[in-house]
Inverse folding.
């Protein structure tokens, strides 16, 4: 019995819902019809505002101010006078110009010639062979005798007016320092026969210097 009652209630409930929805639709339509004039006035009074955006164009920057440049004043104008020739120049005027020769540069000063060499005495100084032999025997270095040293020593010197020897200088060595030293040291202890001029008068000999070669030889 419960089951039959439930089946009969289903259609009845659906019809009730439809009736309720229809009533609500009628009420809503009545409300809209009552408010229709007000809604139309609101729509009419509404103003549409259009905002126009101003387009700003890119303006070019102003040109720079002119720069004041101090320019030099213009040169003065030269007004040439009007030349009036009584007679025209000859056609060969250019050929009448004479060429002036340039003076030659001064010649470079030539150096003064060297002085002439001094006159050489007519007679050269002469050695005393005996006195020279005594010199060798007296001043022969003992160490050179033991070492059997021999050789020729070349020197130059000054010879005074009376034959004295001075300022002896070594020109060429004998190869043995002891013989060279003994020659330079002891040669001034002897004399030479002085030089003579063309008149036979004794003269000094120093310029040029007098050369001499001495040979040291071991005694037999």
């Amino acid at each position: 019995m419960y089951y039959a009652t439930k089946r009969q209630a289903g259609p009845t409930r659906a019809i009730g819902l439809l009736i309720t929805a229809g009533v609500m639709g009628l009420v809503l339509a009545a409300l809209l019809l009552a408010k229709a004039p007000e809604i139309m006035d609101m729509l009419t009074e509404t103003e549409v505002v259009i905002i126009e955006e101003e387009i700003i164009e890119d303006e070019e920057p102003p040109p720079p101010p002119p720069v004041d440049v101090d320019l030099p004043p213009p040169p003065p104008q030269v007004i040439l006078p009007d030349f009036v020739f009584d007679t025209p120049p000859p056609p060969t005027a250019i050929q009448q110009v004479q060429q002036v020769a340039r003076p030659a540069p001064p010649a470079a000063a030539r150096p003064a010639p060297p002085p002439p060499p001094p006159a050489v005495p007519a007679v050269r100084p002469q050695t005393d062979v005996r006195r020279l032999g005594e010199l060798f025997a007296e001043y022969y270095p003992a160490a050179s005798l033991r070492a059997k040293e021999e050789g020729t020593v070349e020197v130059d010197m000054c010879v005074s007016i009376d034959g004295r020897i001075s300022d002896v200088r070594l020109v060429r060595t004998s190869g043995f320092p002891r013989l060279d030293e003994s020659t330079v040291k002891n040669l001034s202890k002897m004399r030479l026969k002085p030089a003579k001029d063309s008149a036979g008068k004794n003269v000094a000999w120093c310029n040029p210097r007098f050369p001499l070669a001495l040979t040291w030889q071991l005694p037999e």
